[in-house]
Each structure stands twice: as C-alpha cells, then as structure tokens.
C-alpha cells in the first residue's frame, strides 16, 4: 500500500517543528564522518535501508522504494530529535530563524502571513470535511469517515452544507445521494469504485479476517489521480463476469461522472436508485430507494432517460425523466468542482460499515 510513500512525504515536515536540528542533521548526512562512531552509524544505516527494501509486499512490485527511503528518513528523524534534546535551549535563546534582523512593518507582515496560513491549515483539517467542502483529500483517514449520507464520526458532523435546507437547494450542494446498481461504461467502471481486494495476497486477507476486519480494500483515489483513462483502463477494475460492485455517490458526483463519460464519446447503460432524504444509516444506504432511473447513451449525444418513481408499486410504469433528473442536468462547473471530489462508498452485501477506501 501507500504507507511508505506517505511517510516519505510526511517525515520532512519535522523541519517545521525542529528547523535547527533538521538543518544540522542534513548537514551531517552530506558530510564525511569525522569519528569512527559516525562512520559505523552511516554503514549500519545503509545496511538497514538495503535490508528494508527486501520487505516489499506490494503485488506486482519487486522493490517499493518508499520503504528504504522512509527507513533512512526515520534514522535522520531520530538524529534530529537527539540534536534538539541537546541544543534546544541554546537555539531558543538565539531567537526564531529569519526574524532576528527584521523589524517594524516587515516583521508584522511576516507574522500576519504565518497566522493566515495557520488558520488556513486549521480550516482545511477541521472545517472542510465538517462543512462538506472536501472528501478525497490528504485529510481523509483510512478509517473511513462518511462524507455523504450522514456522519459516522464519534464526535463531529460531516457535510453540513449538503444537509442544511438553505444550502442543499443550490447547484453546488444539491442532488441528494444515489446508489449506482449497474453500469456498462468502461470509463466509469475503471474509475469507481476500484475494488482491489483480489489484489491482496490470501495471507493478508486471512490476517485481516482474523482481527475482525472485513478484508476489503478500495483505491478510487489512485484512479482519480491518474487522470487519463489510457492509464486506468490497464489497471484492475470491474469488467463483467461477476456481480456489479454497487456503490453510492452524491448526485453532484454522478453529474461529474456522466460529463466525463460523455466527453469520452462512449455508449453505455447506467442504472441507479435515488435514496430518500440526504441522511441515513448503513441499512438506508444499502436498501432505501425513492425512485429508479435507467440511462442509455449512444456516445453521440443521444440520451434515453427513464424513471420509475414508485418502484415498490407493481403497477407503476417507467416514464421519461423530468428536466430535474440528474442525467439531464448540466455538468457541474466552478472553482468548487476543482477540489470537491467525492469518494464512492461500496455497498458490500451483509457488511454494514464503510470498507477501507483510499
């Protein structure tokens, strides 16, 4: 999985906590050892990093270079902490780096800039998901926190803008929740929900099951970030032969998905259920239905959209979709659509919890 590379990208942030110690430690890394203990430590570090490369367990990968890179960074980080313990008092007495020779207006501007970015980061980490302004992001935990259909967090609500009556009537936060039950589009199936469970070695799945884990893994972030369908189409995804991997997305995300499939000039058939309301538990996400929609597109602009408004009524017949139905609405646009990208939440039969999604 991506844990080694996550650590590789995260470890250097220690600089912002211990800048002096990090600078000294890196200077030591690129300098020749001055003592026999320094030489021994370098040799041992290189040997440990080389050995760690043999621990790669990713399917189809001989060496995950993130593992030795993270091993080296951990050793540097340990040295950073040791240096900070020894010299923190002296460095603190010398004052903050870069501000000692700055005064007056320039100093106030620097401090105001720092305060702005602290507030921006706090909003990004603690506010964006609560309001429903971001789902696929660096703050999304592997747990996984529900961002549509209600919160599963022990303390905090999520996606409030999709639930408040005054905001969910707008184009950016409306559309409710839909459950995709069938799709023949290779473009969309290569994008979502990206079930990579079969890529896990049997021993790994057995270990997960032994600890009470459901043993499922999904990687829609990977598919979304690759961007090009020419890459995604060669990666593992559902292509028939097995039951369709049902999943839910917000109505806004469905509009984005349809716009992308249409841009690919692909003919396809897609069926989905519209869920009643905007908040519910996992059983609601699995089974609740307000209406059913069947969409057929020929790849050249021809659209046939039919809706079953009372699916529980056996006498009900399919009717043409109204203009307010999601497939007939325009593609979402605007700055919000640049970072408001939603996870597809798999519907696994008999499992009433969110699987691991990355």
Describe, in plain words, how this protein is organized in 3D:
The chain is of the alpha+beta class and about 350 residues long. It is about 40% helix and about 10% strand. It is built from twelve helices and nine strands. The strands form two sheets. A seven-stranded antiparallel β-sheet has the order 7-6-5-4-1-3-8. Strand 5 and strand 6 (about 305-310) form a beta hairpin. Helix 1 packs parallel to helix 4, helix 2 crosses helix 4 (about 65-95) and helix 3 runs antiparallel to helix 4 (about 65-95). The longest helix has 29 residues, at about 65-95.
How are the SSEs ordered, and which strands pair?
Layout: H1 3-10, H2 19-29, H3 36-52, H4 66-94, H5 104-131, H6 165-168, E1 177-183, H7 186-191, H8 202-210, E2 217-218, H9 220-226, H10 229-232, E3 247-250, H11 251-263, E4 268-274, H12 282-287, E5 291-297, E6 303-308, E7 319-320, E8 345-346, E9 356-357
Parallel strand pairs: 2-9
Antiparallel strand pairs: 1-3, 1-4, 3-8, 4-5, 5-6, 6-7
Task: Describe this protein with a few key phrases.
two-stranded parallel sheet; 358 residues; alpha+beta
Largest sheet: 7 strands, antiparallel
Distance between the termini: 10 Å
Number of helices: 12
Sequence stretches where pLDDT stays below 50 over 5 or more residues: none
Percentage of residues in strands: 5-15%
Integer-rounded radius of gyration: 26 Å
**Helical amount:** 25-40%
What is the N-to-C succession of helices and strands? HHHHHHEHHEHHEHEHEEEEE
Give the overall shape, derived from the CA principal axes: globular
Largest beta sheet: strand ordering:
7-6-5-4-1-3-8
**Mean pLDDT score:** 86
Please state the structural category. alpha+beta
């Amino acid at each position: 999985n991506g844990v080694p590379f996550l650590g590789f990208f995260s470890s250097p942030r220690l600089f912002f906590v211990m800048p002096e110690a990090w600078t000294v430690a890196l200077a030591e890394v690129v300098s020749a050892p001055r003592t026999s203990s320094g030489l021994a430590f370098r040799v041992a570090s290189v040997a440990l990093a080389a050995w760690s490369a043999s621990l790669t367990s990713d399917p189809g990968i001989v060496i995950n270079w993130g593992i030795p890179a993270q091993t080296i960074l951990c050793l540097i980080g340990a040295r950073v902490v040791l240096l900070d313990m020894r010299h923190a008092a002296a460095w603190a007495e010398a004052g903050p780096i870069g501000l000692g020779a700055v005064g007056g207006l320039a100093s106030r501007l620097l401090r105001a800039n720092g305060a702005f970015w602290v507030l921006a980061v706090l909003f990004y980490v603690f506010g964006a998901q609560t309001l429903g302004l971001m789902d696929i992001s660096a703050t999304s935990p592997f747990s996984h926190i529900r961002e549509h259909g209600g919160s599963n967090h022990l303390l905090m609500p999520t996606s409030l803008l999709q639930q408040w009556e005054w905001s969910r009537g707008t184009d950016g936060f409306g559309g409710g929740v839909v459950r995709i039950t069938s799709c023949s589009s290779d473009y969309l199936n290569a994008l979502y929900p990206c079930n990579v469970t079969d890529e896990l070695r049997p021993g790994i799945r057995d270990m997960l099951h032994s600890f009470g884990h459901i043993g499922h893994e999904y990687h829609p972030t990977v598919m979304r970030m690759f961007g090009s369908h020419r890459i995604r189409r060669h990666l593992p995804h559902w292509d028939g032969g097995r039951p369709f991997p049902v999943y839910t997305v917000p109505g806004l995300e469905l509009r984005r998905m349809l716009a992308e499939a249409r841009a690919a000039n692909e003919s396809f058939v897609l069926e989905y259920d519209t869920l009643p309301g905007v908040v519910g538990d996992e059983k609601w996400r699995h089974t609740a239905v307000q209406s059913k929609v069947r969409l057929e597109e020929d790849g050249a602009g021809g659209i046939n959209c039919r809706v079953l408004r009372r699916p529980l009524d056996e006498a009900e017949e399919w009717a043409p979709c109204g203009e307010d139905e999601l497939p007939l609405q325009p593609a979402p646009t605007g700055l919000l659509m640049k970072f408001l990208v939603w996870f597809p939440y798999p519907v696994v039969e008999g499992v009433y919890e969110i699987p691991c999604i990355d």
